[in-house]
Amino acid sequence: MTASPVTASSAPASSVSGLARPTVDALRAKILHHLEYTLAKDAGHSSRYDWRMATSFAIRDEMLKPWFAATRQTYDTGAKRVYYLSMEFLIGRLLEDAMINLGLHETIAAALAAEGQTLSDIIEDEPDAALGNGGLGRLAACFLESMATVGVPAHGYGIRYEHGLFRQRFEGGQQVETPEDWLSQPHPWEFARPEAAYIVGFKGHSELRRGKSVWVPGETVKASAYDTPVVGWQGKWASTLRLWAGLPTTQFDLERFNNGDYTAAAAPEALARTLSRVLYPDDTTPAGKELRLKQEYFMTSAALQDILRRYQSQFSTLADLPKHVAIQLNDTHPAIAGPELMRLLMDQHDMGWDEAQTVARATLGYTNHTLLPEALERWSTYLMGSVLPRHMEIIQRIDEDHAKAHKRPPSVGIVQHNEVKMGDLAFIMSHKVNGVSALHSELVKETVFHDLHKLHPDRITNETNGVTPRRWMRLSNPALSTLLDETIGEGWTRDLDHLKTLEPFAQDAAFREKFAAAKRANKVALAGWVQDTMGIDINPDAMFDIQIKRLHEYKRQLLNCFETIALWHNMRQTPDAGWTPRVKFFGGKSAPGYFVAKEIIHLINDVARTINADPVTGHLLKVVYPPNYNVSMAQRLIPAADLSEQISTAGKEASGTGNMKLTLNGALTIGTLDGANVEIRDLVGADNFFLFGLTADGVEKRRKNINHAREAIEDSQNLRDVLQMIVEGRFSPEEPDRYHGLVDRAWHHDHYLVAADFDSYWEAQRAADALYRTPQDWNRKAILNVARSGFFSSDRTIRGYMADIWDVPSALKD
Ligand code: 26V
C-alpha cells in the first residue's frame, strides 16, 4: 500500500440532515477497502477505472441506508406505490449525482485528494448510461430522482439494454453510428436480483379449457431483474430502478454442444438475449419490427408480474389493487399493460372480465408525449395476433365493450384497418390520460383524442414537464449554484420556487456583475473544452447560442442553419457594422435511417467548416457541432448558454425539457409558441423572451396555401441568398450539387414552414444581438429568467401526478 498520510480534515464536510455523515477518513478507508477487497487491487497500482469503481462502491454503501429505510417504511405502512413503466431511462452518469444528493461531494473530494486522486477525473471516467433517445427518457430519469426527493414509494421499470443509444461520429461531416457499450465495464450501481425472475411468453395460441381461455405460448424467455437505487436530495428517501435482462428458459443443450453443434446449443440464449440487446434508436416511426413489440411486451409483462407478486405478499384482495398501486405508462410503448394486466387477473387469478377491466383501468394512467402521426404506435393485427394471440382476443373484446357502452363515431376504435392503435388502447384502459405541457394537452384533446375526449371529457389532464434542479443546476452549474446559495440560501434545491426571492437582485448592479462572472466562468470552461476536443478557438465574450436536441425536421435545426448562413453572408458584406459576435452550438443525433435529418447534419457541418475557416468573420462567428451529444455533454453546454434555441414549428413539440434547463441556467430563449415555451414565456415575462413565428393555429392556416414556401422565399432577399449559396455549392465545393435535393424541398415541400418563419426569426435574432450589446440589460433579463423558472422543477410535476393521477401522498413528514 502506497497511500500518502492523511492530510485532509477528518471532520465531516457538508451536512445531510437525518443521515449519519461519514468523515473524510471513514470514506477514505471505505474506498481503500473496496479497492482491496472488492476489486483486489493494490492502491499503488490502481488505474483511474479502479479508483472510480472503489469510489462508486463506497458511495453506493451510503445509498443503502436511505434505500432500505424507504423500502421498510413502505412495507410497514402499506403505503400506496407508484410504478413508472418506460422503455427508456436516459440516466447519464450517477457518481456525482449520488454524491451531491448525499451531501458527500466535498468529503469524497478530500478523501480522494488524500490518495493523490482528482475527483473530477474520476467523475469523467464514468460512461453515460444512455438507455434512452431523448426527452422522453431523460424525463423518466428526472422523475425517478424527483420521486426520491418528494418521498414517493416508487419503482421505475425498464429494459437493461446491453447497448444504449449509439455513439455518433462525424466522417466528412456525416453522421456515422457505432454501437454503445456501457456494459463492457461492470456497472457499479446495480444489484443483480436473479431471484426476481419471471417467464414471459410469445406466440403460440389461445385455447379454451373448462370454459376459460388459456394462452399456450410457443416461445418463452426469462426476465431477470437488476436494481439500481436512486437517492433523493439529502438522502431522505430513495426510489428503485428495476431493469430487466433477457435470459433463456431452457437449459444449455449439452448434448448438442458435445456433438459439436455449438451454434444450435447456444441458440435459446442468443434469442433471449436479443430482447435486451439494443435500444431502438428511432423515435419517429414505429420500428415495425416484431422485436420491438416483443421488447415492449417483455418489459411490461415482467413488470406487471413483479407488481402483482409484491402486492400479493402484502395484501390479499386483488380487487383493491388500485387502492395500493398506481401504474404510469410512459407513452404507448408499455400500452400492452392494459390487456396484460387483465390477462393476469383473469387467467391466473380467476377474476371476471368486468372486474378485471375496472381494476386495470383504475390502476393505469397514460402519458402522451407526441402528436406526430408517424410516432403514434400502431401494430398490424396480424403481428399482434401472432406474437400475442391471447392479448389480441382481449384487445378485440375491450374494443367491442367500448363500442357497446358508448355511441362511438366510426373513427373511434382501437382496431381499425387491420391495425391496433396503441394510443386508443392506452386511452381506453387508463383512468387518466395526460399531456406534458398546457398547449400540448389542449392539442391532445383537439386532435389525436378528439373523439375519445368527447366520450370521456374528464379523462385528459395536463402535467407540464419539469427537470430536476439537483442535476440540472447544483451538479452541472456549481458557479451559479454557489451564487444562489450565498444570495438566497440553499432552500431552492429542494423547493425551486425559492428562486422567486432572487427577483429583486435583478436590479442590483453588484449582483448582476457576480451573475455575469459565473456565466463567464462557465463559458471559459466550455471554450477550453471546445479547443481541447475540437481544436476550434472560440471567444468566451461572444454570445453562446445553443440548440441541443435530437435532429428532427420539426425541431428545425435547418432554420437555425439557414439563419447562420444569412448572418455570415451579412457579416462578410459589412464586417465593421457593429455585429454581436456569436458562437452557434449544435448538438444532437439523428435516427440512423432518417435520411433528411442526416442531410441536415451534413449541411451544418459543411457550413461550420466553411465559416470557421473564414478569416474575414473569424472574430464574429463560429459554428461548433461536437459529436455524440449526450446527458454529460448537456451538463457542460447548458450552464454556458446565453441564448436557448427553441424554434420548433408551433404545435409539434409536445413540451421540451431542454428549454427548461436552459432557462433555469440563465439563458434567454428565442422561440416559437410551442410546447412548454408558452409557459416559460408566460412566467419569465414576454419582455424577457425573444418570440417569433407562426402560432399553432397560424401554421394550420398557412399550410392551406400550397405556395406558402415559394411566396415566403420570394419575399425574403436574405433567404433567397441563403438558398442560392447552398445550391451553388458554396459549402460543398467538392460536390456542388450535394444539397440540390434539400433546396428543392425547401421551395416545394416545406412541411415544417422554415421559409414562412424565416424573416420573423431573423428579426428576433437581431433583437437578441442588440440586447446583448447592453450587458446590464441582458443580465437583468437573464436573472429574471432564473428567478421565475422555479415552476419547472420536476418535483412540482411529480406533485401534480400524485394529486391528479396517482392519489398518493408523500411518505416524508416535512
Ligand atoms: C416512439 C418510438 C417508436 C418506436 C421506436 C422507438 C420510439 C421511441 C420514442 C417514440 C416517441 C417519442 C416521443 C417523445 O420522445 N416525445 C418527447 O417527450 C418529451 C418528454 O415529454 C417532450 O419534452 C418532447 O417535446 C417530446 O418530443
UniProtKB/TrEMBL annotation:
Keywords tagged on the record: Allosteric enzyme, Carbohydrate metabolism, Glycosyltransferase, Pyridoxal phosphate, Transferase
Annotated GO biological process: glycogen catabolic process
One GO MF term: glycogen phosphorylase activity
CDD domains, sorted: GT35_Glycogen_Phosphorylase
Statement: the UniProt record of this protein carries the keyword Protease: no
Record-linked PROSITE patterns: PHOSPHORYLASE (PS00102)
Residues modified to N6-(pyridoxal phosphate)lysine: K661
Cofactor: pyridoxal 5'-phosphate
Pfam family, one: Phosphorylase
Entry's EC annotation: 2.4.1.1
InterPro entries (alphabetical): Glycg_phsphrylas, Glyco_trans_35, Pyridoxal_P_attach_site
Catalysed reaction, written as an equation: [(1->4)-alpha-D-glucosyl](n) + phosphate = [(1->4)-alpha-D-glucosyl](n-1) + alpha-D-glucose 1-phosphate
Gene Ontology terms: cellular component: cytoplasm
Function description: Phosphorylase is an important allosteric enzyme in carbohydrate metabolism. Enzymes from different sources differ in their regulatory mechanisms and in their natural substrates. However, all known phosphorylases share catalytic and structural properties. Allosteric enzyme that catalyzes the rate-limiting step in glycogen catabolism, the phosphorolytic cleavage of glycogen to produce glucose-1-phosphate, and plays a central role in maintaining cellular and organismal glucose homeostasis.
Similarity annotation: Belongs to the glycogen phosphorylase family.
Protein's UniProt name: Alpha-1,4 glucan phosphorylase
Organism per entry: Aquimixticola soesokkakensis
Gene coding for it: malP
